[in-house]
UniProtKB/TrEMBL annotation:
Protein name per Swiss-Prot or TrEMBL: HupE/UreJ family protein
Transmembrane segment boundaries: 151-169, 176-198, 204-221, 233-255, 267-291
Cross-referenced InterPro entries: Put_HupE_UreJ
Record flagged with keyword Transcription: no
Pfam families: HupE_UreJ_2 (PF13795)
Signal peptide from the UniProt entry: 1-19
Protein keywords: Membrane, Signal, Transmembrane, Transmembrane helix
Length: 324
């Protein structure tokens, strides 16, 4: 029990610094006339307006006017038009964030006039995004499978929720059933939202995701009891999974679904999330196995309370931040 609590505490170390990794900077480049580009970028609405970065036009290109700023319900935007005498292939885009801005991941959607659309994913903290010299030849399924795995591993709030489920499920078998239920549930709303059949305010979704972590933290702090959460954690996973699916859909919408192979892309992205969750669970259990060989520290109930309160306080901060 105490080893599980220590693992949750270890999970908090990167969380404080990278709480917004799963809400990336979205950057789009559209080519109108040959050689003329409209570049727009957006940070999520849960961040502050001053956190919009300055984005430099690719080397060898010339801006057609000053950059502009605006905002709407989706977030805070920046934009600039520029011209290039040659292709953007092999060039780079630079990002300059103001001091104090979180290390966001970056999703670039490139729409050339006469070539296929390209999606580029840069990891959190990368301030230079290279445009490939030629379009990636990775097939559609593998591309969205990789994006699903990368998203769940950079989504600290989703991982903390999964960690809470592991804590309550406690065994490999119950954890596998619980995580699978979570995946099935969020897959339903992800597909419905990605297809435009159901919509939900992004800010409310992010706040409820944080609330789901608070709920698990409270349950863990109170300890095992004869409640539905402890008897059947899969029901809790599936209930909150419906709302987590809207969060996954928001990122998938920023990545962009292909016009052809839509079902394949959705299936691969969901499978990538499931594989990422299973890999995370395997890491947690491996850490616990290693920690179990070390001398136990402190009273189990006390360590459990510290871990639960630490997670709950962090998630509460995220919740109020996202509501504001």
């Amino acid at each position: 029990m105490r080893m599980l609590c220590l693992a949750l505490l270890l999970a908090l170390v990167p969380a404080a610094a990278r709480a917004d990794d799963n809400r990336p900077l979205a950057l789009t480049l559209d080519e109108g006339k040959p050689g003329e580009w409209d570049m727009r970028w957006r940070v999520p609405a849960n961040l502050a307006a001053y956190m919009v970065p300055e984005v430099g036009v690719p080397e060898g290109c010339e801006p057609l006017g000053p950059s502009r700023r605006w905002s709407d319900e989706l977030g805070y935007w920046g934009g600039v038009r520029f011209t290039c005498s040659a292709s953007l292939a092999g060039k780079s885009i630079t990002l300059a964030y103001p001091r104090g801005a979180p290390p966001l991941a970056t999703i670039v959607r490139l729409h050339p006039a006469r070539e296929e659309e390209e999606t580029i994913l840069a990891q959190p903290g990368e301030l230079t995004v290279a445009i490939p010299a030629k379009p990636a030849d990775e097939n559609l399924f593998l591309r969205f499978l990789r994006l699903g795995v990368e998203h769940i591993w950079t989504g600290i709030d989703h991982l903390l929720f999964v960690a809470g489920l592991i804590f309550i499920a406690r065994t490999w078998r119950r954890t596998a059933v619980t995580i699978t239920g979570f995946t099935i549930s969020h897959s339903i709303t992800l597909a419905l939202a990605a297809l435009g059949l159901v919509t939900f305010p992004p800010g409310a979704v992010e706040a409820v995701i944080a609330l789901s972590i608070v709920f698990l933290a409270v349950e863990i702090a109170k300890g095992p009891r004869d409640t539905l959460t402890w008897r059947r954690p899969v029901f809790v996973a599936m209930s909150f999974g419906l709302l987590h699916g809207f969060g996954f859909a928001a990122v998938l919408g920023q990545i962009g679904l292909p016009k052809e192979g839509l079902v394949t892309a959705l299936l691969a992205f969901n499978l990538g999330i499931e594989l990422g969750q299973v890999a995370f669970a395997a890491v947690v259990f491996a850490v616990l196995h290693g920690l179990a060989r070390l001398p136990a520290l402190g009273h189990p109930q006390r360590v459990q309370g510290i871990a639960a309160y630490a997670v709950g306080i962090l998630a509460s901060y995220w919740m109020f931040e996202r509501i504001a």
